[in-house]
Design brief:
Helices cover 43% and strands 11% of the residues. The chain is of the alpha/beta class. The protein is globular. It has an 8-stranded parallel sheet. Strands 3-4 form a two-stranded antiparallel ribbon. It is built from 17 helices and 12 strands. Helix 1 packs antiparallel against helix 2.
């Protein structure tokens, strides 16, 4: 049984990224200083998760702005109005990146920013990709590979996190008439293959491909795009373990599609949609690993260990432990970094603090769930249930299957 996390907050435990970015934009610091801040945040995040006991630590979850803009930059989906900045060799690559997000008003140029909209139903926003008919793509940025190698030099083999190609296209907009953006999938997938092959050559084992649109309504063409994409990836990279990740909802009508895709693992958001687990267990092939998103990545509350363990026991009843992964429901991007950093001067009372868990505490909860699951061979022992009671948040009703045992404590 493995533990993993879908992503860690990128702002830094003391909001270093916000301060460094604003200083760079204002011309008060250098590009090197901004890049060093990013590197320090990544190193801190990796070490926190390593010390917590996370087996598959994410990389490429860090961003100077947002993960969708990162993907546009990676695959060279740069609108023509920015090409004059591209051709100016004196401009750092990161200035082009920020121009796409914030606009560019320098050196006689006045270029508007790309559109920004909400990341699904969260309070986060992303930069909307712009697509044209027959849009070409090429590998423009090596950020994904660079950060994998950066962690590797620190002794950590990470699980790169990449926005999946189908969801990337569906998150964008057509900027001219006469085509649907999903038609670009065959132009886009070769760039993903290039990235994945380079990761494979660098000894990556697991790669997380985020496809949140599997939890949305899909038309037939979009379903066929999923089938084409993942069959092509499997054929090109047969030794790479692809973890297909969904969140913010259940698979519902797309359950059969998700279970039939040739990947090595499927992640479920069991906080938003816990009832999908039983149906998925009935459909999922035996050789496919299942990632259980049990720790809520979108709130600040301690985990409900009782409910989580009930779902975990259900999964253990139908899948062997070596085919199970314990995880956050989605990226922890949506959570503050560390409760310990927030206590001083925050106005949080001791009573409130005992209910809270931020990102650092949540990765600890993921590791605790694994240990509790391993200890559950003797579920009648009081020590096992006392551990749960100590860890748990008692806001919710107790699951009926453990209610009597719990009361005895």
């Amino acid at each position: 049984m493995l533990t993993h996390n879908l992503g860690y907050p990128r702002i830094g435990s003391k909001r270093q990224l916000k301060k460094a970015s604003e200083a760079y934009w204002a011309g008060k610091s250098t590009l090197r200083e901004l890049q060093e801040t990013g590197a320090n945040i990544r190193e801190e995040n990796w070490k926190i998760q390593q010390e917590a006991g996370i087996d598959l630590i994410p990389s490429n979850d860090f961003s100077f702005y947002d993960q969708v803009l990162d993907m546009s930059f990676t695959v060279g989906a740069i609108p023509e109005r920015y090409h004059e900045i591209v051709t100016d060799q004196k401009k750092p690559e990161l200035d082009l990146y920020f121009a796409m997000a914030r606009g560019y008003q320098k050196n006689g140029l006045d270029i508007i920013a790309m559109e920004m909209t909400k990341w699904f139903d969260t309070n986060y926003h992303y930069i909307v990709p712009e697509f044209k008919k027959n849009q070409p793509f090429k590998l423009f940025s090596t950020k994904i590979l660079d950060e994998f190698k950066e962690a590797k030099r620190q002794g950590i083999i990470t699980k790169p996190v990449i926005l999946g190609p189908v969801s990337y296209l569906l998150l964008g907009k057509e900027k001219e008439k006469g085509f649907k953006r999903i038609e670009l999938i065959k132009n886009l997938v070769p760039v993903y293959l290039d990235i994945l092959k380079k990761l494979e050559e660098s000894n990556a084992t697991w790669v997380q491909l985020d496809e949140p649109f599997l939890a949305m309504d899909l038309d037939q063409e979009e379903k066929e795009a999923f089938e084409y994409t993942y069959k092509t990836i499997r054929k090109a990279c047969p030794n790479l373990k692809i973890l297909l990740t969904t969140y913010f909802g259940g698979l519902d009508e797309n359950l059969d599609l998700a279970c039939e895709l040739p990947v090595c693992g499927l992640h479920l958001d069991l906080v938003r949609a816990p009832k999908q687990l039983e149906k998925t267990l009935d459909k999922l092939p035996q050789n496919l690993s299942l990632s259980l998103g049990l720790v809520d990545g979108r709130n600040i509350w301690k985990n409900d260990f009782k409910a989580s363990l009930e779902l975990l026991e259900l999964a253990k009843g139908k899948k062997s432990e070596n085919r199970l992964l314990i995880a956050s429901s989605c990226s922890l991007l949506h959570s503050p970094c560390d409760l310990e950093e927030e206590k001083s001067g925050s106005g949080l009372t001791a009573e409130i603090q005992q209910w809270l868990a931020f990102a650092k505490q949540k990765v600890g909860e993921i590791a605790s769930l694994k240990q509790l699951a391993l200890d559950s061979g003797l579920p009648e022992t009081n020590n096992y249930w006392r551990k749960i009671k100590k860890l748990s948040n008692l806001k919710k009703p107790l699951p009926s299957s453990i209610n009597k045992r719990w009361d005895r404590l």
